[in-house]
Amino acid sequence: MGMKPDEQCRAMVWLKERYQGCPHCGSKGGAMADLIALPILDSTAGDDLSTEIHPSAVVLPVACKKCGFMMLFNAKTLLNPEAKEGA
Ligand SMILES: [Zn+2]
Question: Quick check: 55 and 42 in contact, CB under 8 A?
Fold first, then answer.
């Protein structure tokens, strides 16, 4: 699942302003990957958490270039220009 060029640009700006570096090794180098949709499991549906999969949360992975540690950022927050800090 790719991003449109304007979405890539907005995501880059968002990350450039806020990215603090890798929490694992401290390296400042990170690389964006393609958007990923994570399934949301319904724990109220039964004993097996994997039986009910609902619409997913879309996240933007950023991988540390040095150690490979991967951080997931909520794509809605990155790509929504209406989003406000602390809201
Ligand atoms: Zn790292």
Answer: no
pLDDT tens, residue by residue, 14-23: 999 999 999 9
- Going from the Cα of 71 to the center of ligand 1, the distance in angstroms, rounded, reads 10
- Domain range holding 62? 5-79
pTM for the full model?
Answer: 0.75
Distance in Å, CA 51 to ligand 1 centroid: 34
Tell me the CA–centroid distance for residue 22 and ligand 1, in Å.
5
Q: What does the pLDDT read at residue 71?
A: 95
SS3 7: helix
Cβ–Cβ < 8 Å for 75, 36: no
Q: How far apart are CA 32 and CA 11, in angstroms?
A: 9
| 59: Cα separation from own chain's centroid | 3
Asked if residue 86 belongs to a domain, the reply is no
53 CA to centre of ligand 1 in angstroms:
31
